[in-house]
Write a structure and sequence with these properties.
By secondary structure, this protein is of the alpha/beta class. The protein is built from 14 helices and 24 strands. Bound molecules: uridine-diphosphate-N-acetylglucosamine and phosphoenolpyruvate. Keywords: Cell cycle, Cell division, Cell shape, Cell wall biogenesis/degradation, Cytoplasm, Peptidoglycan synthesis, Pyruvate, Transferase.
Length: 420
């Protein structure tokens, strides 16, 4: 197992680029199962989760064709086996996103239940209820979701009890090939849902309202190929900007979007960063100042994203004052707290709230990555800790951050990978 070794080196300074968004690329790869022609996807990030998804689609019969400039072409017409096995689904929860497309296009799907993960129980009951409302017959047996439909799915009005990102994406994809109109109410407004909808529209789907909490889909009989570029990764972007704030430095992220990061940028400004933005870049400059601790509460978009919570806990750990960080999406997304405390942080957990009192210094220590963003928070903290930090189990970080050590080295960090 590879490890990262980081030596605290003070202020980051420089420019880096954002990769394509993992949480957009994964649903878009699954959406190609709906197509009857080649879909070409550009700006795909080079990540373990992408490799796992391509392996999953490959098992179904879809052979990726690699093109120039990191493009990949996939054709849903090649599908011959509508089955997502446990051994792949357990590696990556987003595999559940093949359920809606397979059922809508081929009338059946056997998809392993993803189960929970380190951050929470992560149920998929709303995906199943929505597909049932569209006429599917679904049984859960032997750890698998076995879904069948006679003819086409039927359009329906579906109200989500809770805002669910993958639930919205699964039903959005299923509805594109359903008979009649589907209305998704209390739908997720996340930019990655909008990116998926735009790709589906390119494939010939009739969708309106994406980005609002009511999405309307007029089903069509078939979808065709198209070209689509994956949007920039707002969470990777935010992680680099927090690293600037944490280290009292300056980081400019290029090839990104400021309009999808408003809640995060507002918190960086509250922490004392000078934030400037352009058409496709964002810069955070702390001008040597220590950050001020911020209070925040995670919630569905456009509120503060749960995927940035751990990184802000790390920043608060070295900030001036005390910040209260409330996690409302996942019941166990504070695994980084114990590891940060081992580095000298002063963080107390009170139910779903981390009370973070900033300390003057953190010290390097051997720590363990427990999930994707927890890992990112440890890396960010290590860059400002005294001495050396060894981050173990970094396969978590490789799921979501492309070339993490190369990009941080560009900014002046002392970080290297040690093969395990
Ligand atoms: C709303 C939200 O912030 N979603 C986050 C969630 O998306 P992801 O799609 O993984 O999770 P959901 O959005 O589906 O879950 C949101 C909430 O709804 C609940 N739920 C979900 C589906 C379901 O069928 N039943 C149910 O009860 C979950 O337990 C959770 O509390 O994790 C991703 C990875 O960290 C983040 O990128 C998303 O921003
Ligand atoms: C937890 C994450 O991803 P996943 O839903 O794939 O586990 C994330 O992107 O922060």
């Amino acid at each position: 197992m590879d490890k990262l070794i980081i030596t605290g080196n003070g202020a980051l300074d420089g420019e880096v680029w954002a990769s394509g968004a993992k949480n957009s690329a994964l649903p878009i790869l699954c959406a190609t199962l709906l197509s009857e022609g080649p879909v070409t996807i550009g700006n795909l990030p080079h990540l373990q989760d992408i490799t796992t998804t391509l392996e999953l689609l490959g098992r179904m019969g879809v052979e990726p064709v690699m093109g120039e400039k990191m493009t990949i072409q996939l054709d849903g017409a090649q599908v011959r086996d509508c089955h997502a096995p446990y051994e792949l689904v357990k590696k990556m929860r987003a595999s559940i996103l093949v359920l809606g497309p397979l059922l809508a296009h081929f009338g059946h799907a056997d998809v392993s239940l993803p189960g929970g993960c380190a951050i929470g129980s992560r149920p998929v009951d709303l995906h199943i209820r929505g597909l049932e409302a569209m006429g599917a017959d679904i049984r859960v047996e032997g750890g698998y979701i076995r879904a069948r439909v006679e003819g086409r799915l039927k359009g329906a009005t579906i109200f989500f009890d809770t805002v669910t990102v993958t639930g919205t994406e699964n039903l959005l994809m299923a509805a594109t090939l359903a008979e009649g109109t589907t209305v998704l109410e209390n739908a997720a407004r996340e930019p990655e849902v909008v990116d998926l909808a735009e790709c589906l529209i390119g494939m010939g789907a009739k969708i309106s309202g994406q980005g609002s909490d009511t999405i309307t889909i007029e089903g069509v009989e078939r979808l065709h190929g198209c070209y689509h570029d994956v949007m920039p990764d707002r969470i990777e972007t935010g992680t680099f900007l927090v690293a600037a704030a944490m280290t009292r430095g300056r980081v400019k992220v290029r090839r990104t979007r400021a309009d999808v990061l408003e809640a995060v940028l507002a918190k960086l400004e509250e922490a004392g960063a000078k934030v400037t933005t352009g058409e496709d870049w964002i810069e955070a400059d702390m001008q040597g100042r220590r950050p001020r601790a911020v209070n925040l509460r995670t919630a569905p978009y456009p509120a503060f994203p749960t995927d940035m919570q751990a990184q802000f806990v790390a920043m608060n750990a070295l900030a001036e004052g005390t910040g209260r960080v409330v996690e409302t999406i996942f019941e166990n997304r504070f695994m980084h707290v114990q590891e940060l405390n081992r580095m000298g942080a002063n963080i107390a957990l009170e139910g779903n709230t981390a009370v973070v009192t900033g300390v003057e210094r953190l010290s390097g220590a051997p720590v363990m990555a427990t999930d994707l963003r927890a890992s990112a928070s440890l890396v960010v903290a290590a860059m400002m800790a005294e001495g050396e930090t060894l981050v173990d189990r970094i396969y978590h970080i490789d799921r979501g951050y492309e070339c993490i050590e190369e990009k941080l080295q560009l900014l002046g960090a002392k970080i290297r990978r040690v093969p395990g």
